[in-house]
Specification:
364 residues, globular, Rossmann fold, single chain, alpha/beta, Sugar ABC transporter substrate-binding protein, 12 helices, Bact_Solute-Bind_Prot2
């Protein structure tokens, strides 16, 4: 199952079938085991493709696990390209086509309650994937401890600044994620938990669509406003935006880049960490997240309601939840995490430009 469900024991998915509501009183899982359809349809909705993980990892891992557990099940896949209206059309089409379970990573998690309600009216279970849907009850939420992600990013940046002797000098720039993604607020909260009172935050941005291009523009604005020599660190909520911020700093003529954080362990970011352009990333066990969601979806097609080890309140209901632990990764941790888990092969990381840095890190 992958590492560390947030200090809870791993719970087997295929538990005894339950009648009535889903686990924890959620309204979706109302079918019985006897009514399972041969060749059930599981609809997977991902929010965008600018972030590498969705098409490279989430989708194929989810589809492979469903196939392994249910050879006759079909995965109906949609990517919304960061367009909430497009995702609404995709969900409504899947409901019309007779989807038996929805696994939804919402573009705008605060605005999809009406879609979840449509599924509830049809007695179709819903799993919120990666992003917590608010305003309505549903069956499950599968994600990471997002506040902890932000705390790890903030602590890593603070440690790097302290080691360089710059924590009390200059200012940092915070580049947060999309305001429509509730995870972004959690990352931001966690980072502020660590950084407030420890460093000066010169500029802070929320970045529409998690766009690396927009992050680059924001970083350029921050450098202009604060002065190049004043910026001693950058808290970037993910790797794609870190890449944009790094491009801005290079363009501004930095001879030495200040420490910058990231998340998702994108291949380009791992290479940047090895060469010293990026300080760290947050490694998320996407395999565990995708496979757990697939297991829950298949179980729900059988009328089963697996017990969840946690509950998360979304402002309206306590949602049964599976939360994974994030892992902070700096240069010295890549070999024993990302490479050891075969998230990437050493050959994929250690291209010609990175070969020497790989050797120094013991990656071959």
């Amino acid at each position: 199952m992958g590492r560390g469900w947030k200090t809870f024991p791993v719970v087997a998915v295929l538990l005894a079938a339950a009648c009535g509501t889903g686990s924890g009183g959620a309204p979706g899982a109302t079918t019985s085991a006897d009514s399972q359809q041969e060749g059930a349809t599981i609809a997977l909705f991902l929010p965008e493709s600018k972030t590498t993980r969705y098409e490279a990892f989430d989708r194929p891992l989810f589809e492979a696990k469903v196939k392994a557990l249910c050879a006759t099940c079909q995965v109906l896949y949609n990517n919304a390209d960061q367009d909430a209206g497009k995702q609404q059309q995709q969900v409504e089409a899947a409901l019309t086509q007779g989807a038996d379970v929805l696994v939804l990573d919402a573009v705008d998690a605060a605005a999809v309650a009406p879609l979840v309600n449509q599924a509830r009216q049809k007695k179709i279970p819903v799993i919120a994937y990666d992003r917590l849907i608010s305003g309505i009850g549903y069956d499950y939420y599968v994600s990471f401890n997002n506040v902890r992600v932000g705390e790890m990013q903030g602590q890593a940046l603070l440690d790097a600044l302290t080691a360089k002797g710059t924590a009390g000098k200059g200012q940092i720039v915070m580049i947060n994620g999309a305001p429509t993604d509730p995870s972004s607020a959690d990352y931001k909260k966690g980072a502020h938990n660590i950084l407030d009172g420890q460093v000066r935050i010169g500029k802070e941005f929320d970045t529409p669509d998690w766009s690396p291009d927009k992050a680059q523009q924001q970083m350029e604005q921050a450098i202009t406003a604060l002065g190049r020599d004043s910026v001693v660190g950058v808290l970037s909520a993910n790797d794609g935006m870190a890449g944009g911020a790094i491009a801005a700093m290079k363009r501004a003529g930095y001879t030495e880049l200040p420490p910058i954080t990231g998340q998702d362990a994108e291949l380009a970011a791992v290479q940047r960490i090895l060469t010293g352009e990026q300080y760290m990333t947050i490694y998320l066990d996407i395999r565990a997240e995708a496979e757990k969601s697939a297991e829950l979806a298949v179980a729900l097609t059988k009328g089963q309601a697996p017990a969840a080890p946690a509950k998360v309140n979304n402002g309206t209901a306590d949602i049964p939840a599976f939360l994974l632990d994030p892992i902070p990764v700096t240069k010295d941790k890549i070999k024993d995490t990302i490479v050891k888990d075969e998230f990437y092969k050493a050959a994929d990381i250690c291209t010609a430009e990175v070969k020497d840095a790989c050797a120094k890190a013991g990656i071959q």
